[in-house]
Amino acid sequence: MDELNRKGDSTVPLEKKMSELTEKVDEEEKKVMKDPYNVDWACCPKAKNMLLEKLMEIAFLRLKVLETDVDSLCKAAELVNRSSDMKASEQRTEDYLASQQ
Are 2 and 14 in contact (CB under 8 A)? Predict the structure, then answer.
């Protein structure tokens, strides 16, 4: 996964990655739901199992998208925390230097 940039709009790489994953999942879902063989899924156990496997793959991909989203939110929160810690440290340094004068 792309690391978030410290300058500019840091959400662009994340949004691009999420968009790509979502498109991939949607394409897989369309492939599964399109029925080129006109199979009656209810009466054919083997075909039904194949459909269930594909649907499980789609569910797994959707979970992967959510996992990526959660990971990126955690990274963004970590960056915000680091930024606020740095600002607090700078303020303490400025206060100390001002008190020394």
Answer: yes
| pLDDT per residue as tens digits for the range 18-67 | 778 778 777 877 776 666 565 555 567 777 788 788 888 888 888 888 88
Q: Is 15 exposed, middle or buried (0-12, 13-18, 19+ CB in 10 A)?
A: exposed
Within 10 angstroms of residue 72's Cβ, the number of other Cβ atoms is 20
Q: Which two tokens stand for residue 10?
A: 């840091």
pTM of the model: 0.41
Instruction: Please say whether the beta carbons of 32 and 54 come within 8 A.
Output: yes
CA distances from 48 to 26, 44, 69 (A): 20, 6, 31
Structure token digits, residue 5: 């940039």
Q: Check residue 1 and give its pLDDT.
A: 39
